[in-house]
């Protein structure tokens, strides 16, 4: 997959940059960070029918170990000539980030992180208008009533965060997700699962966030 | 932020936008047909029957629609089940002989994809038929989806057919 190739290249470059300045001794100062995932807004520019919003929180309880939680909601509104499809949902993820590079005394504001998460998403979806055309029999209009969908998944990935000004940070992370339990409806799999992405058994997604750090 | 960091973040933004444009236009068939195969009755091994000429009409309460018009050398037909009702009928005309097939089914809306929209799957519960020309009918797969399965096997007697 091309995107993976590029991301591994980024990680390799990051590693070279940060290893050069790595030091073992660090003065640890606990901190918490609140973030906004702006990749959802970028997605909305490219796919106007999908609007995910995501906030994140992490707390560094010991040097290079972060407890992390992410939550948000999703709105999908597809309006085509032959069908309408709507979905609204929310999600949360929780897990840890481990700093593998950076975060030391010389680069206290650069982190290369490995991430592990458990995720849960819930959404309500419906198709209030469906038009099925048949050249022999004519047009048939129908609909699918609102139904609730749940999904549980695990995910792992890596990324980096760096300070751009005082306590303001930018960061990206690439996550691979595997769904291990979900509501079964073979006739209407969700188009986009809140917090997970496109409705495949495995998904890969790039997140790009802006953070504010609260020194504690 | 040092210059390498800036470069990496810009690259990540580029990747982000690249990753957002992966949707494809609809290239899947959205109409699902009932597939009927023709066979010779009473054979030890299943033998395909090729019918010289067949016409097929779809019937509803007020009209009939021509599906096949004197088609030659036919061994498989594909019929559109009526999406407006839970039942429909077809007349199969083999020259002077005619048989009628009645189907009862449940309809299920199925989302193919956001680009393609919805289609109907059919779960056939009952099939009735006359035996003026055909000899027997067997349900092979009662679920009509976008797969290429054969759903019904129709068996004809030997005479009057060209056998492969």
What's the gist of this structure?
The complex is a heterodimer of chains A (216) and B (164). Chain A is mainly β and 216 residues long.
Protein model, in words:
The complex is a heterodimer of chains A (216) and B (164). Chain A is mostly beta strands. Chain A has a single domain (32-215), classed as Porin, CATH 2.40.160. Chain A has helices at 2-19, 39-46, and strands at 31-37, 50-62, 65-79, 83-102, 110-134, 138-165, 168-182, 192-193, 197-198, 202-215. Residues 15-24 of chain A have low confidence and may be disordered. With 164 residues, chain B is mainly beta. In chain B, 10% of the residues lie in helices and 52% in strands. Chain B has 1 helix and 11 strands, in the order H-E-E-E-E-E-E-E-E-E-E-E. Chain B has one helix at 3-19; strands at 33-40, 49-59, 64-74, 76-80, 87-94, 97-113, 117-129, 136-139, 143-144, 152-156, 162-163. In chain B, the strands form 2 sheets. In chain B, strands 2, 3, 5, 6, 7, 9 and 11 form a 7-stranded antiparallel beta sheet that branches. In chain B, strands 4-1-10-8 form a 4-stranded mixed beta sheet, with no helix packed on it. In chain B, a hairpin with a 2-residue loop joins strand 5 (87-94) and strand 6 (97-113). The radius of gyration of chain B is 24 Å and the shape is elongated. The model of chain B has no long low-confidence stretch (mean pLDDT 85). Chain A binds chain B through residues 3, 6-7, 10, 13-14, 17, 39, 42-43, 45-47, 49, 78, 80, 82-83, 85, 110, 127, 130, 132, 134-138, 140, 142-144, 160, 162-164, 170, 172, 186-189, 191, 205-206, 208, and chain B through 1-2, 4-5, 8-9, 11-13, 15-21, 23, 30-31, 58, 60, 65, 67, 80, 82-84, 88, 108-111, 113-114, 117-121.
Defining traits:
heterodimer, A: 216 residues, mainly beta, Porin, eight-stranded antiparallel barrel, 10 strands, 12% helix, 65% strand, B: mainly beta, seven-stranded antiparallel beta sheet, 1 helix
SSE topology:
The complex is a heterodimer of chains A (216) and B (164).
Chain A: H1 2-19, E1 31-37, H2 39-46, E2 50-62, E3 65-79, E4 83-102, E5 110-134, E6 138-165, E7 168-182, E8 192-193, E9 197-198, E10 202-215
Antiparallel strand pairs in A: 1-2, 1-10, 2-3, 3-4, 4-5, 5-6, 6-7, 7-10, 8-9
Chain B: H1 3-19, E1 33-40, E2 49-59, E3 64-74, E4 76-80, E5 87-94, E6 97-113, E7 117-129, E8 136-139, E9 143-144, E10 152-156, E11 162-163
Parallel strand pairs in B: 1-10
Antiparallel strand pairs in B: 1-4, 2-3, 2-5, 2-11, 5-6, 6-7, 7-9, 8-10
């Amino acid at each position: 997959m091309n995107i993976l190739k590029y991301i591994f290249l980024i990680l390799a470059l990051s590693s070279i940059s940060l290893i050069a300045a790595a030091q073992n001794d660090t003065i640890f100062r606990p901190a918490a960070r609140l973030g906004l995932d702006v990749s959802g807004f970028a997605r909305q520019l490219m796919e106007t029918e999908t609007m995910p919003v995501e906030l994140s929180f992490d707390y560094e309880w010991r040097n290079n170990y972060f407890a992390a939680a992410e939550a948000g909601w999703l709105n999908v509104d597809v309006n085509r000539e032959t069908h309408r499809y709507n979905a609204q949902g929310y999600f949360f993820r929780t897990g840890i980030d481990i700093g593998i590079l950076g975060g030391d005394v010389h680069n206290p504001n650069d982190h290369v992180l490995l991430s592990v998460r458990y995720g849960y998403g819930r959404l309500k979806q419906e198709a209030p208008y469906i038009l099925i055309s048949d050249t022999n029999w004519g047009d048939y209009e129908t609909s699918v009533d609102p139904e609730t969908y749940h999904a549980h998944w695990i995910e792992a990935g890596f990324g980096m965060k760096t300070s751009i000004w005082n306590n303001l940070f930018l960061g990206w992370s690439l996550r691979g997700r595997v769904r291990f339990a979900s509501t079964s409806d073979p006739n209407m799999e969700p188009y986009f699962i809140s917090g997970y992405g496109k409705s495949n058994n495995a998904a890969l997604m790039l997140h790009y966030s802006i953070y504010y750090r609260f020194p504690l | 932020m040092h210059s390498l960091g800036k470069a990496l973040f810009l690259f990540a933004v580029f990747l982000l936008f690249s990753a957002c444009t992966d949707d494809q236009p609809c290239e899947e068939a959205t109409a699902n047909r009932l597939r009927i195969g023709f066979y010779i009755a009473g054979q030890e091994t299943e033998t395909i029957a090729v019918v010289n000429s067949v016409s097929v009409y779809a019937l509803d309460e007020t009209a009939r629609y021509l599906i096949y018009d004197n088609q030659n050398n036919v061994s498989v037909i594909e019929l559109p089940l009526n999406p407006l009702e839970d039942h429909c009928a077809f007349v199969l005309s083999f020259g002077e002989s005619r048989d009628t097939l009645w189907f009862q089914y449940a309809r299920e809306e199925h989302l193919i994809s956001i680009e393609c929209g919805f289609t109907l799957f059919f779960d056939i519960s009952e099939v009735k038929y006359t035996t003026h020309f055909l000899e027997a009918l067997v349900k092979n797969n009662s679920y009509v989806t976008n797969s290429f399965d054969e759903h019904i096997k129709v068996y004809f007697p030997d005479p009057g057919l060209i056998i492969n």
